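User: Run a structure prediction on this.
Assistant: Running it now.
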Amino acid sequence: MSGGRVRYASNGTVRLAYRIWGDGDPTLVWVPGWISNVDAWDLPDSPFASFPELLGEQTRFIAWDKRGTGLSDPVTRVPPLDERMDDLHAVLDAAEAECPAIFGISEGGPMSILFAATYPERVSHLVLYGGFARAADMRPPDWTQEMIEARIAQRVKGWGNGDMMKLVAASQAQDKAAVALLAKFERLASSPGSLKTVLLLNGQIDVSAILPTLQIPTLVVHRRTDAIVPVALGSKMAAQIPGARYIEYPDGDHAFWTGDIDTMPGDVEEFITGHRDNGPAELERILATVMFTDIVDSTRRAAEMGDQRWRGLLDNHDHLARQIIDKHRGSLVKNTGDGVLATFDGPGRAIRCALAFSTAAQQIGLPLRAGLHTGEIELRGRDIGGIAVHAAARVMAQSGSNEVLVSRVVTDLVAGAGLKFSDRGSYELKGLPGRWELFAASQ
């Protein structure tokens, strides 16, 4: 679905930017977290540009910027939740959304809860992702106001540099391209001054008393590994909402575009519409061996060498990767900043590719680590997804310098192929069930 032009709704003198994707039924209104920019959905390589499509081709999808963020009017004072609720009312009226489903993201959740409880006739369904009811539950109970303001000042000081990646999407914190994209999004989404005002408001949010009054069908979804809003707060909130459905995902970050990004939209679509047109059952799945590689200590090396020399070395790394992956009949999915993600139709070729790439990279002064796993993957255009992809990344994270680690399933599939394996023990891999036996490959 293509997004339309930016439009504006008015709440008194405040102008609020919004956009509409699609013209189907039902209507789904996206209530963003603490920052947003409706133009950012079109950024090159935007990680969430596909969400309108993932939430159903027949959906009429509306995204908007809350006051003080993105393309909406800035704020000079802390706006209370009831004013933000009125802003949502104005957007619904301007977009002619009579009774849409509301999708509250993170800090957008409390305002969505208040709106749904106050105007149940204007909301068909309520979905809450990574949400909370009481902001104070996310900080130590002995924190003073001075400590809270110091934390806010620290975040404001680093604004626009992508520093928030370590919190909102820790799984991508080593991906330089992803960090640069987040830094740009930060600058587009809010000025430092507006950010400070918004964060001061967020620290005062408490809608816990409202939860038992909700009469709207509600779905609460949360990721177990959320580093900003602990998963216990999501399950607690769901337990206090009458009849709420709760789904907990094992992997991913607070950022909604990480982890298994197909399952959650499918669950939301099924909850709202009763069917799952774009759920995992509709995805093209194939068996493949997934290879992740990473340059060891890349940040330190970049600092020692300087940007120009490091960029040249990375270019050589990328050229080697393409050349060696092609030679072993692999498919280069993407560069990850200081590594690669590739797939192979045979685990033996994948291992030999990883070993050859590691050797070639050593010759240009770059120690690599690599992780491989074989399993079913989901094809998403040029990208891939699924548990097998996460497993390969977790295996790589256990690998040492100049080491190629593989899972037990890979060793079982290449028996008799002339490859050697050394037992590296069993591990608990973050977000994955059970213990995993890992092996170092060699020829």
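Residues 7-281 form a domain with the Rossmann fold fold (CATH 3.40.50.1820).
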